[in-house]
Specification:
By secondary structure, this protein is α+β, with helices and mostly antiparallel strands. The protein has two domains: about 1-40 and about 75-110, 2-Layer Sandwich (Alpha-Beta Plaits), CATH 3.30.70; about 45-75, no CATH class. The protein has three helices and four strands. The protein has a four-stranded antiparallel β-sheet. The radius of gyration is 18 Å and the shape is globular. The two termini are about 20 Å apart.
Amino acid sequence: MQQDHTIAFIFSSFDDAQVARQALIDSNKIDADRIRVDVREDEAGPTEGNFVIGNKRHDGKQSGDYDEQYANPRIDGSVTLFVSCASAEEAHEMRSALSARGAVDLADRTPS
């Protein structure tokens, strides 16, 4: 059974992800068909705020004015670039290249 070495990096914009994708391709170290960009937005744009239930305060109280409860935080990470790597070594090399472009490794944002 072959081990999966897919890595995922989060970008703040589609354009940044596309530039990183093209840089990986131009480096001649990985084929374009092993790189995928996934966008978690729709025609309304990225998810912002929680207009259904509000944002609970850190102290757990549901008090405060409208602006406090229904703030407009942007949920980053709506653009993810996936790279299907052939080995752990290749995954390490791709991680280094993407980190250098300011991307955030999804593995760093999820519990292990």
